[in-house]
Design goal:
single chain, about 425 residues, mainly alpha, 20 helices, about 80% helix
């Protein structure tokens, strides 16, 4: 009964629009006080939530992505990819998804990916006769690749919460990330074939391809340094983020695209997002401490063990809960609330925690493009200056693709586990 009261209080506060960080922290504090636990646990929980070397990667990746965003790197990347594939059927859509995938491999942020590529691709694609809702939906969905293709901020936080290997989580995200990118590309090509207003792009000359590729080469090298350094074991994800930030700063200054006002904007934007994330992390840590002392995760695990014997049924239940939560919560809040509660049940169900992390993030991706709080919908709406309904109309086919990928992950677990454990 206590569990029901706590969950009711949690969702009641969230429905009242109390900020997630204060909902989690305040509820955790109240639970500790009502349970008669020592108040010294509060500063201990808050300190331990920040006392993690791995968490240093979050502000550094955010800072790197904001510097690249304000340095106009997305335009170079899109132009280079477009010069090679723009003449294909649906070529600009293909170029958009490939650009999103490459930028995702640098930034680890869905918002930065959607905003960076969206500022360039929306005007280019609408000029060529692509349906505006399709363009906006494609970019909202393409941005979600930023939290699956490594480096991924949600995967870093999942690794911190569960103490699983960040590198294995990154490796596990590659297969599903590339699969989704391929699925989006196929859909773009089919859509262009069926669209009566689509206008093909002329094939670029070799000189144009060479010039565009040379301008985008520093960005590709940056992605290779960030990702390759982690997988080669040269540096940790946190060190990779720091090196990536330093190299990105060199790139934008060398290209003459950064000045003090832009740098100040990038730092301020990164600081605001970092503070928001860390406040939620701190609140979630305090809430997690309280529910552990109340033995709620253990009770849920025992209930699952006693009532759900099939792992498939457990995954279906988790998927339904996350989809419902996605209507009212943004992605990081879902992760930080649910991961500590669900993680103890994985051993009972004999579910691989690395696989579950990828499954979790795919469902979080779905939440990013579902109303009313899908963050990528609002990002694209702001970039395109369009109505939210227009973005939602274009995004729903991609929601179905993401849900289909989540189902496929259950039947074909090697989609996530082959690279980290079998390659």
């Amino acid at each position: 009964m206590t569990t029901i009261y706590i969950l009711a209080a949690l969702f009641g506060l969230l429905l009242l629009r109390v900020p997630v960080a204060f909902t989690l922290g305040g509820l955790g504090l109240a639970m500790l006080w009502l349970g008669g636990f020592s108040p010294i646990m509060v500063p201990q929980a808050l300190f331990s939530s920040m006392d993690s070397f791995i968490l240093l990667a979050v502000p550094m990746f955010l800072l790197m992505s904001n510097i690249l965003l304000r340095g106009g790197i997305g335009a170079d990347l899109f132009a280079a990819v477009q010069s090679w594939v723009g003449h294909w059927p649906g070529g600009l859509g293909v170029a958009t998804i490939i650009s999103c995938a490459i930028f995702a491999a640098i930034s680890g942020s869905s918002v930065a990916t959607a905003a960076t590529i969206g500022t360039v691709a929306i005007s280019e694609m609408t000029k060529r006769g692509y349906d505006r809702p399709f363009v906006l939906g494609l970019l909202a969905a393409g941005g979600t690749l930023g939290i699956l293709i490594p480096p991924s901020i949600p995967l870093i936080l999942y690794g911190v919460i569960t103490e699983e290997s960040i590198v294995q989580l990154f490796l596990a995200g590659i297969g599903p990330g590339l699969f989704l990118a391929g699925l989006f590309i196929i859909y773009s090509m089919l859509h262009s074939r069926l669209s009566p207003h689509y206008q093909p792009v002329p094939k670029a000359s070799w000189a144009e391809r060479r010039a565009a590729s040379l301008k985008a080469l520093p960005t590709v090298l940056l992605a290779a340094i960030v990702i390759g350094g982690i997988y080669a074991g040269w540096f940790t994800p946190s060190e990779s983020a720091g090196i990536g930030f330093f190299v990105s700063l060199i790139i934008v200054y060398a290209m003459g695209r950064m000045d003090w006002p832009k740098l100040k904007e990038a730092v301020e934007a990164s600081m605001k997002t970092t503070v928001t994330i860390f406040l939620i992390v701190a609140g979630a840590k305090l809430f997690g401490k309280a529910i552990t002392l109340y033995r709620i995760p253990q009770e849920i695990s025992m209930w699952i063990a006693g009532n759900i014997s099939e792992p498939a049924l457990f995954i279906l239940l988790v998927g339904c809960v996350l989809l419902v939560m996605g209507f009212v919560l943004e992605s990081l809040s879902m992760l930080l609330i649910m991961a500590p509660v669900l993680y103890p049940s994985l051993e009972t169900m004999m579910i691989d925690p690395i696989w579950f992390g990828i499954f979790f993030v795919v469902l979080i991706e779905t939440a990013l493009i579902t109303p009313p709080v899908g963050l990528n919908l609002f990002v694209i709406q702001a970039v395109a200056r369009s109505s939210l309904l227009e973005v939602v109309r274009g995004a729903w086919p991609f929601v179905l693709m993401l849900l289909g990928t989540a189902m496929l992950l259950w039947f074909w677990k090697d989609l996530a586990l082959f690279i980290p454990f079998r390659l």
